[in-house]
Amino acid sequence: MKKIFFCLALFGWLGATAAGIDTASIHSKSMNRALKCVVIVPEDKKDGVRFPVVYLLHGHGGAYHNWIRRVPQLASLADQHRMIIVCPDAAFSSWYFDSPIDSSMQFETYIAKEVPAYIDNHYPTIKGRSARAITGLSMGGHGGLFLGFRHAGFFGACGSMSGALMIENITKGFDVEKRLGDTIANRHYYRELSIMKQMEQYPKDSVAIVMDCGTEDFVIEMSRAAHRKMLSLKIPHDYTERPGKHDWKYWGNAIEYQLLFFRRYFDRAAKAG
Which of 76, 118, 185, 229 is the most buried (most CB within 10 A)? Predict the structure, then answer.
């Protein structure tokens, strides 16, 4: 594991913080390969201090380093909110599925199980559902809600920013068909693994949910559809639309609101015992 204790100048980043930024290589048993992961740890000199964790997912065509390179204030936000932020790699277009047709693409298992196991073993985490959240942008917004619902016993909160949430409608140009197969022969995968279907298994013990999207974003109707279905199912959630497009200017702003949402969730959960 390559450890970088705040050499921001190395990457040409601005600002100063006491947080530590690691680049870890995390092996996947399910795929028999290792992938890199950025881990941001808030600075605290007290022995035995542990922190909640937010897993922050990248979008289609992205990689593990996107968030910290594009939004370097993440390090300051980790300090401010006293949380560990984990940015794993999910390949160019995994869509955070365990692909039923490609054994080399098992990213539900990797992100929801293998990465957290490594993080809990190597970092000062609070090991409990009420101290874990998962969210992301675009394809990662799909991953945040998909994994958050599917693994609600592990993640207590989940979110989406500009989420590409209706995989049943994303059938050309973004590799969903490479993960799930032919849209006709394998149409049951597109149906069963859709966020819209996953919502119907909303856990009785609740998950804290936050969604947002820019009003000029080309995928906003997907967020609106998810919002409407959650309302119809009476699933509590926080939903926001604000001016913005499908770009880093929007996500750099949106992440600040989402981390505040998760910090408040962690605090409520801690008080509830």
Answer: 118
Question: Sheet holding 20-28: strands in order across?
Answer: 2-4, 20-28, 33-41, 84-88, 53-57, 132-136, 157-161, 208-214, 238-242
Coil, strand, or helix at residue 41? strand
* CB-CB contact of 158 with 135 (8 Å): yes
pTM: 0.92
Residue type, 49: V
Nearest to 138, CA basis, from 106, 110, 164, 169: 164
Using N-to-C axis directions, what is the helix angle for 74-81 and 248-272, rounded to 10°?
20
β-bridge pairing 84-88 and 132-136? unpaired
- The span from the CA of 163 to the CA of 220, in Å, is 8
Among residues 55, 33, 57, 54, the alpha carbon closest in space to that of 106 is found at: 33
Q: How far is CA 151 from CA 48, 97, 156, 193, 252, in A?
A: 28, 13, 9, 13, 27
Q: Tell me: the pLDDT tens digits for 22-66?
A: 999 999 999 999 999 999 999 886 778 999 999 999 999 999 999
Residue 222 — φ and ψ, nearest 5°? -70, -45
Residue recorded with tokens 């995989």: 167
